[in-house]
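TOPIC: backbone geometry
CONTENTS: sequence, structure tokens:
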Amino acid sequence: MRLSLRKRAAFTLVELLVVIAIIGILVGLLLPAVQAAREAARRMQCSNNVRQIGLACHNYHSALRTFPPGRLVYNGWKSDGNPTKVVTGFLAMVLPYLEGSNLFNTYDQKFGFDDVINQPAVNVRVAAFRCPSSPADEVSPIYSGWNMGWTNDMNALTGLTGEVSDYQGVRGLHHLQGTPGSGQVHVWDGDCGILNESATRIGHITDGTSNTILLFENAGKPDHWRLGKKQPAVTHAQFYSHGPWAGNNGVGVYNWSEDGTVKGCDTCNRFINVDNELSPYSFHTGIVVIVLADGSTQTLSDSVDSQVFVNLCKKQDGNVVGEY
């Protein structure tokens, strides 16, 4: 009897390699789309965070007839009885308007954010103060220049820490004034921001609440980032003067050179996504999220004209902002 042999269907090596190559191409096409969708969701969450903080500032205004100061600094006492400067930031002040009453009650505002008695409170992570796109997920060393003599010495840090915030308020602005290349001068405007050390009311914002920045992203602390690249370990203590949510949340914003190596120079005309020390910085490609004084959220391109940014920071200069 003859047995008929039937051929088994099987992949050849070439066919298998083709299938693998096709799968690789499909994965390569799919991954960027997935990553883009995830970043879009993170950016939406970031916008929601700053909107919540902006609304909390408005609720604070409704209750107290003024926006919170970016920081309070006054003579007081340490919990050990020694005299000191007491420092509190605006994010700590608006906690009750962010469903954070328990944390607000835990944080003893008789003492500064840099007092050891407040370590349990200031090391609590507040989700609304963190951008989900920020790669940092750590606490920051606490720096308080009023009690450290404004030193840059890293050895002067006391070892106290605080959970960071990726959102800060405009307290002041360093910029160039005049026509580029002909008579530009350095200008420091310490009263331009809404969250400065004065009590700003809505009526003080004569440029209009929809034309004035309230908050901006300043993400990535406690790490140092410049132009999308993480920098070596920080070596100057003042880098940490902004960062902890309970601390000095009103930032004196600085202008930077194109390469980010110098701030406040004669040709420093960039503000956004250059350096996360003293200026708006985000991990959303090409933009930074802001909230305006009317509570609305916007994005600013990192290529926005520097004068437009300056006008947005000022609340009473009378300049027309225009398109951005």
User: Anything to note?
Assistant: Helices lie at 13-64, 90-93, 101-106, 119-122, 145-148, 306-313. The radius of gyration is 25 Å. Residues 14-323 form one domain. The chain has one domain: 14-323.
